[in-house]
Specification:
alpha+beta; six-stranded antiparallel beta sheet; 6 strands
Length: about 100
């Protein structure tokens, strides 16, 4: 799996999380990584599967010669939510 990205983050003590920022990640090989997680149990497997599942679900998917490519625009907002491609990440992973 490869991850490329660029972005910025800055300390903002008035922001809900003490910082704001945004960035874009491009992820290749995520589906292959998912397959390896399923085949090789590890102590952190469930956490990794959850993270990969969210990345696949929220990622803007395209394809190149390497296979599926996922683009993720991440924003740490001043009011608190962390947005991934416009979706509030906390609402997706909150225990209810």
């Amino acid at each position: 799996m490869t991850v490329e990205g660029e972005g910025w983050i800055e300390i903002n003590l008035q922001a809900a999380r003490g910082a704001v920022g945004s960035g874009r990640l491009i992820v290749r090989g995520l589906n292959d990584y998912l397959g390896s997680l399923v085949r090789q149990p590890s102590p952190n497997r469930m956490v990794a599967l959850s993270i990969v599942g969210v990345m696949i679900a929220l990622g803007e998917s395209t394809e190149d010669e390497t296979g599926p490519v996922y683009a993720l625009d991440v924003e740490l907002t001043p009011t608190g939510p962390t947005l991934v491609n416009g979706q509030d990440l906390e609402r997706l992973v909150a225990d209810e």
